[in-house]
C-alpha cells in the first residue's frame, strides 16, 4: 500500500516566500522544493524550521503534517527559529545588553 503524501510548509533560507509541498518521501519533498525555489538539488537538504534538525528518510515519517521545513543548499546552515530570533534580539539590543548576556 502506498504511503499517503505528507504536506509540509517549505521555505528557503534566504527567501521570504513559503510554499506548501506534499511528498511521500524526504527526497520527493526536497526535489519539489528545489524546483519551486529554483535551487540546485545536488547538495541540498531539509531541516526542521523549529530546531534545525536535519531530515533523513528514516526520520521523515515522524514529521507531522504541516510541519515547517527549511530548504538548505550546500554551505548553508540553520539552527532553528528560536536561536535565530535570539541572536537577532541580541544584535538589536546592542550595547544596552548586559555583558553577561552577550558572552
UniProtKB/TrEMBL annotation:
Gene Ontology BP term (one): apoptotic DNA fragmentation
Gene Ontology CC annotation, any one: nucleus
Keyword set includes ATP-binding: no
Top-level taxonomic group: Eukaryota
Entry GO MF terms: DNA endonuclease activity; hydrolase activity
SUPFAM superfamilies per UniProt: CAD & PB1 domains (SSF54277)
Major localisation: cytoplasm
InterPro entries assigned to the protein according to its UniProt record, in alphabetical order: CIDE-N_dom, DFF40
Domain CIDE-N: 4-80
UniProt subcellular location: Cytoplasm; Nucleus
Keyword list, A-Z: Apoptosis, Cytoplasm, Hydrolase, Nuclease, Nucleus
Its job: Nuclease that induces DNA fragmentation and chromatin condensation during apoptosis. Degrades naked DNA and induces apoptotic morphology.
Oligomeric form and interacting partners: Heterodimer of DFFA and DFFB. Interacts with H1-1.
Protein name: DNA fragmentation factor subunit beta
Organism encoding this protein: Pan troglodytes
Amino acid at each position: 500500500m502506498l504511503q499517503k503524501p505528507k504536506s509540509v510548509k517549505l521555505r528557503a533560507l534566504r527567501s521570504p516566500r513559503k510554499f506548501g509541498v506534499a511528498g511521500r518521501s524526504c527526497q520527493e519533498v526536497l526535489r519539489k522544493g528545489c524546483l519551486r525555489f529554483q535551487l540546485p538539488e545536488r547538495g541540498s537538504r531539509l531541516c526542521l524550521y523549529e530546531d534545525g534538525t536535519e531530515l533523513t528518510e528514516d526520520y521523515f515519517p515522524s514529521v507531522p503534517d504541516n510541519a515547517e521545513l527549511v530548504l538548505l543548499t550546500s554551505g548553508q546552515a540553520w539552527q532553528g527559529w528560536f536561536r535565530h530570533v535570539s541572536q537577532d534580539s541580541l544584535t538589536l539590543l546592542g550595547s544596552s545588553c548586559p555583558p553577561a548576556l552577550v558572552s
